[in-house]
User: What shape does this take?
Amino acid sequence: QVQLVESGGGLVQAGGSLRLSCSASGRTFSNVAMGWFRQAPGKERDFVAAISWSGVTTYYADSVKGRFTISRDNAKNTVYLQMNSLKPEDAAVYYCAVRRSAYRDSYYQRESEYHYWGQGTQVTVSS
Assistant: This one.
């Protein structure tokens, strides 16, 4: 079992930056792929970014490409999402997710491919 706790959300002006963190506990952090998703009010949860368990491969939704960066620190059992040039449409609850038994350099972008989820952290972007 894996427990995930997100942090770093908050209120920021458009054009600003936030760094989300997701700390994992409960089992080894290696051999797991990680991802970030987000859900705005009244909308479905959408894929944002993913990183392989090796950290070599990353993948982003087109809407955040060039502005967001996903990274991980396996020694700290933590994955990060650096969000720059934030826009009002980035406002959502952001969730991190873990997929166990991942291939070393593979990323995953479908919700069904993940086994564990955090509770989410709210990001609000004012215009």
Notes: The CA atoms of residues 20 and 115 lie 20 Å apart. The chain has a mean pLDDT of 94. The two ends are 40 Å apart (CA to CA). The longest strand covers residues 18-25.
